[in-house]
Design a protein that fits this description.
InterPro entries: HU-HIG, HU_DNA-bd_put, IHF-like_DNA-bd_dom_sf. Keywords: DNA-binding. Pfam families: HU-HIG (PF18291). By secondary structure, the protein is an alpha+beta fold. It has a domain at 74-123. It is 22% helix and 22% strand. It has helices at 36-45, 51-70, 114-117, and strands spanning 3-12, 22-28, 75-76, 81-86, 107-112, 124-127. The strands form 2 sheets. The protein has a 3-stranded mixed β-sheet with strand order 2-1-6, with no helix packed on it. It has a 3-stranded antiparallel β-sheet with strand order 3-4-5.
């Protein structure tokens, strides 16, 4: 079974019945970020399209989603999920007192599909060994070839 690693973080509780007491919480350990280039390469290796085509489609998707959001549509991205625009506003007691300046800046909301949302449900957890020196490790050099994602079946796009 695959596991997600974590380490414990010591904090002083600010709220609730433990307020003021020292507590420990789990914090996930992230190994880094998969670059856009590595993502496109991996997708190309597992489909029938090339890396340049994958990059072009994702770049166009990133341009197209805001276009439809600006028009007031939500954007369904299939098994990935749905993007929609949202905003809030400050409340007023009377409708006549409301004006556009009370509206907060819009934001993009992403709602993952159930399969994506629950993809990690079967994972276990493993506590990492405490570091002898709590300083942060030096950042990895970009563009390295350390990323080797697990391969899967192609989706034949």
């Amino acid at each position: 079974m695959a596991t997600l690693k974590f380490h414990l973080i010591q904090r002083k509780a600010q709220l609730g019945k433990l307020k003021g007491k020292t507590t420990y919480t789990a914090q996930p350990i992230h190994l880094g970020k998969v670059s856009f280039d590595d993502l496109c390469k991996h997708l190309a290796e597992n489909t029938t399209v090339g890396k340049a085509d994958v990059k072009a489609v994702i770049a166009r998707l990133a341009e197209t989603i805001p276009h439809f959001l600006e028009l007031g549509y939500s954007v369904d991205c299939g098994d990935l999920g749905t993007f929609r625009a949202s905003f809030g506003s400050q409340p007023v007691e009377n409708a006549k007192d409301f004006n556009v300046s009370l509206i907060r800046p819009p934001r993009v909301v992403f709602t993952p599909r159930m399969a994506l949302k629950y993809a990690l449900r079967g994972l276990g957890f493993e506590q990492a060994q405490p570091l002898h020196n709590p300083k942060k490790p030096a950042p990895k050099k970009p563009g390295g070839s350390e990323f080797n994602p697990p391969s899967g079946g192609g989706i034949g796009i």
